[in-house]
């Protein structure tokens, strides 16, 4: 059974398009994350959600919007795609809860390789 | 600002021992993680240190010195499959993970 899954695995699209990446975790975790890993392999946190509330929003353009329909899902929607958005996007989850415990290890999905042409 | 430093790349020989260092400067400290990432794959958890000292887990050990803002990952009896990037990450006072850029480890026969 896959713990954290993402779809699609590969996404090739043109500048200006809007696209979404889906993420689901079946670990019962409370917190989910989106990361961007660029060509230099640096892992940058974009968002995290805890019980449907956004608790981290680093300096990410507002073209990126996370959407969490429930605790097990955190989708990433990207508007008006740009060349610089090309990267691998990882979803992750952890047991971290607001107000206590942790930090806990994060479990990563397989990644979505986004190529903008 | 917050900063994590690791060597960009290291090379070692199969069967040998290698130590990957990580130094950090963060606002607060709630523990340090090491992750392994094979090329084209997702990072996977290796270890977590929150107290000073050495944590051993099979061929891998991780050490922490909070006073020095320093950690290392020690890999023994290196195997070809250990060729990967090793990421150091620190949980700060807000429990946010600050990630290093990773160390690419190349194992030669």
Care to describe what's here?
The complex is a heterodimer of chains A (117) and B (109). Chain A is mainly β and 117 residues long. Helices cover 0% and strands 54% of the residues of chain A. Chain A has strands at residues 4-7, 10-13, 19-25, 31-37, 43-50, 53-57, 64-70, 73-78, 87-94, 107-108, 112-116. In chain A, strands 2, 4, 5, 6, 9, 10 and 11 form a seven-stranded mixed sheet that branches. The N and C termini of chain A lie far apart (34 Å). In chain B, the strands form two sheets. In chain B, strands 2, 4, 5, 9, 10 and 11 form a six-stranded mixed sheet that branches. A five-stranded antiparallel sheet of chain B has the order 1-3-8-7-6, with no helix packed on it. Chain B contains no helices and eleven strands. Chain B is an all-beta fold. Chain B is globular and about 40 Å long. Chain A binds chain B through residues 40-45, 56, 90, 96, 102-103, 105-111, and chain B through 30-31, 33, 37, 41-45, 48, 85, 87, 91, 95-97, 99, 101-102, 104.
Outline the biggest β-sheet of chain A. Answer: 7 strands, mixed
Oligomer: heterodimer
Weakly predicted, low-confidence segments of chain B: none
Report the strand count of chain A: 11
- C-alpha-based Rg of chain B, rounded: 13 Å
Produce the secondary structure layout.
The complex is a heterodimer of chains A (117) and B (109).
Chain A: E1 4-7, E2 10-13, E3 19-25, E4 31-37, E5 43-50, E6 53-57, E7 64-70, E8 73-78, E9 87-94, E10 107-108, E11 112-116
Chain B: E1 3-5, E2 9-13, E3 18-25, E4 32-37, E5 44-49, E6 53-57, E7 60-65, E8 70-75, E9 84-91, E10 97-99, E11 103-108
Short overview:
The complex is a heterodimer of chains A (117) and B (109). By secondary structure, chain A is mainly β. In chain A, 0% of the residues lie in helices and 54% in strands.
